[in-house]
Amino acid sequence: MSRQQTSAVVSIVLVVGLLGLVAAAMLTLGGPRPMSEPVSAVPDWSAQAVLNMGAPINTAWDEGELSFADDGTMVLTSARQDLAVAPGDPKDLYIATFNASTGTWNTPVNMGLPVNAAPATDVDPLRKGDDREPWITPDGNTIYFKSDRLATSSPMNINDIFVTRKVNGQWTTPELMPAPISTDAGNEHCPMLLRDGRTLCFASQREGGFGSFDIWCSEQQADGRWSEAVNAGPQINSAGSEFHFMEDPAGRWVYYSSSRPGGKGGVDIWASRHLGRNTWGPAVNLGPLVNTVGADMCPAVGPGGKTLTWFGGARKDSLGASDIYFTSQRNIDRVLSANGTP
């Protein structure tokens, strides 16, 4: 079976699994549909369905930033203390493989040392062991993430971007992504490669931006070096903060978190069309189905592009302070179409 065929099969199974969760929610929200009832008479569940990812992904602790490989492998962030690499570790990276036979994810596993770093506040008080915001490449072999393991109080540098690669089935010791990616002044975080496989976009407070955190992008050259980062411009960036920039599998849309004016809460999820090299359409708010009066952040497009996931904490069914949620991509398409951007 080719890689394309395998990816298609995984996408179908993932959708079936997610629809199974939707069906369970339907039983709670509106009761089961009689088998004889025509499909056309049934209200479209996707007009209102935002679903909690549930256990074992969400726990009583905070779960947050996540991303997916094409085979369904999920990498996420959790503040759970029962599996932390060290007591008091604020957040670690976890990985969950997709179970094709059940259509769900297996229990997440802490990626352990050296991918996650233990607190080292004896070296510098800023080194709290905070590892988060993972982005896994489509082939599942590389993860970019932010960490405070090299944070310094003077000069003030809280976060940097790191990369780990899977070699012979094992994840390597993370390597710093040096300047022009990580800088002392930029507090860089939320890395993500565009679908071209060579453009790394991330959030930074470096000089030359429009607000607090902006989205910047750098291209890897043929010799492996990274070009000077370019600001994504005023269609993406605002006087507020933008971060966690995520491109869909087709390369048509980017989704990102923003505190720009016009949102529903403190931080909302927005979308823009990818029109060309560092060329983006206007920002479109994803609306009240996704965004609440709280903070809804860090979108991730599910495998096959059939769902959108994110995390937030203002919903009544949250298992912890913040949980991971998802909805059908059809909901997102409706919002984008209503804004004249199909």
Please bin the fraction of helical residues. 10-25%
Number of helices: 2
Find the count of extended strands (DSSP E, 2+ residues): 24
Question: Structural class of the secondary elements?
Answer: mainly beta
How would you state the average pLDDT, rounded? 87
Q: Which stretches of 5+ consecutive residues score pLDDT under 50? A: 5-13, 19-43
CATH level-4 homologous superfamily: TolB, C-terminal domain
CATH architecture: 6 Propeller
Gyration radius, rounded: 20 Å
Give a quick account of the main beta sheet: strands, pairing sense, barrel closure: 5 strands, antiparallel
Beta-sheet strand percentage? 25-35%
Shape: globular
- State the domain count: 1
CATH level-3 fold name: Neuraminidase
* CATH hierarchy class name: Mainly Beta
SSE string, helices as H and strands as E: HEEEEEEEEEEEEEEEEEEEEEEEEH
The N- to C-terminal Cα distance equals: 33 Å
Describe the structure.
With 342 residues, this protein is mainly beta. It has a single domain (3-338), classed as Neuraminidase, CATH 2.120.10.30. The protein has helices at residues 3-29, 329-338, and strands spanning 51-52, 63-68, 74-78, 92-96, 98-99, 104-105, 109-110, 131-136, 142-147, 160-167, 170-171, 175-176, 189-193, 199-204, 214-219, 230-231, 242-247, 253-258, 268-276, 279-280, 284-285, 296-301, 307-312, 323-328. Strands 8, 9, 10, 11 and 12 form a five-stranded antiparallel beta sheet that branches. Strands 17, 18, 19, 20 and 21 form a five-stranded antiparallel beta sheet that branches. Strands 1-24-23-22 form a four-stranded antiparallel beta sheet. The protein is globular. The two termini are 33 Å apart. The model is unreliable at 5-13 and 19-43 (pLDDT under 50).
